[in-house]
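Q: I have 163 residues here and want to know how they pack in 3D. Can you give me a structure?
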Amino acid sequence: MSASNHNIGNAGEFYVLAQLSQRGIIAGKTDDGQTLIDIIATDPASLVTVNIQVKTRGRDGDGWLMSAKNEKAYPSLWYVLVQLNGTDLIPDFYVFHSNVVGPWIQRDHENWLLEPKRDGSAKKNTAMRRFRPTTEDLRVAKNNWQAMFPAACFTAPAAPPLA
């Protein structure tokens, strides 16, 4: 049975909540679809609060789907990109600030519009965007939770014991 896009999105959000909680960050999920914000998270030691949008994809995704509203950068908005790795494995997490994601998808979309369709006609502007970071970008962003909370003194969660 395949999961719906809504269930995949919810799974990503709950995985992110679990990762933040394991690191001692106070985090709560917002109502679905209300704003750019899926999670509000606060470091209890410094009281630094950030807003997080979670984007989740399955194993075979080509980037992460975004929309035109994601082109704008906000000082307190972060993206956690979740790469699901199957039902029995922990996902991969990639942390990016909106000042990286927004301009990137804006430039990418502008370049996409400049390329004609196969028949030579112009492409129509749509709200859909796709964020496709490089392998190096993903390497740097992987599990980079401290980027959101530089003053926090948390460590990565311990690996579960082997059976």
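Q: Anything worth noting?
A: Residues 93 and 143 are 5 Å apart (CA to CA). Residues 5-22 form the longest helix (18 residues).
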